[in-house]
Amino acid sequence: MAIQPIRLFGDPVLRQRASEVTDFDRELRRLVADLTDTMVAAPGAGLAAPQIGVGLRVFTWHVDGELGHLVNPTLELSEEQQDGAEGCLSIPELTFECLRALSVVANGFDMYGEPVTIHGSDLLARAIQHETDHLDGVLFVDRLDTDTRKQAMKAIRDSEWFGLERPTVKVSPHPMNGFQI
């Protein structure tokens, strides 16, 4: 499969709600492979389809040596919370303290359309919540307290990558059924 360019903060695709996956086909399996390859190469703990310009509700994770993916996730969050450093491949080289649920039960599907339930805590719970937020057009900086968000936005504006042109994305000559943005 292929490593894809990761969209950076400021790209409009990162603020759009992704569409539900309806076709569990070869295109979806290729997307999961591209997400996995891109995430591992970055390296990152997770990567959502909008981060590579695809508006579908799919993400991958790589936490504690475990690779996984989830399609059309729904989450049940614990009331107990964790506060910890969080970063994002779309906001490179910056981390900030972010409050999240300590554990999560994520329901969805694998790339073949089979139902999946993932139980995660600590870093896996954080990654699942972070990537599901991406599918809703929410970035982790949106979840920061007011003072930390101001610091984060200043750091983003001061970063070397802020304002760089979005990557050139070649449009496939083949029908994409609206999957590519």
What features would you describe in this structure?
With 181 residues, this protein is of the alpha+beta class. The chain has one domain (12-158): Peptide Deformylase (Alpha-Beta Complex). 24% of the residues lie in helices and 30% in strands. The strands form 2 sheets. A 5-stranded antiparallel sheet has the order 1-2-3-6-7, with helices on both faces. It has a two-stranded antiparallel sheet with strand order 4-5. The two termini are 19 Å apart. This is Peptide deformylase. It is an enzyme of class 3 (hydrolase). Its cofactor is Fe(2+). Its EC number is 3.5.1.88.
In short:
The chain is α+β, with helices and mostly antiparallel strands and 181 residues long.
Task: Please tell me the overall pLDDT.
Answer: 90
CATH level 3 topology: Peptide Deformylase
Q: What fraction strand?
A: 25-35%
Distance between the termini: 19 Å
C-alpha geometry: globular
Q: Which stretches of 5+ consecutive residues score pLDDT under 50? A: 167-181
Family: Belongs to the polypeptide deformylase family.
Protein name: Peptide deformylase
Catalytic activity: N-terminal N-formyl-L-methionyl-[peptide] + H2O = N-terminal L-methionyl-[peptide] + formate
Cofactor: Fe(2+)
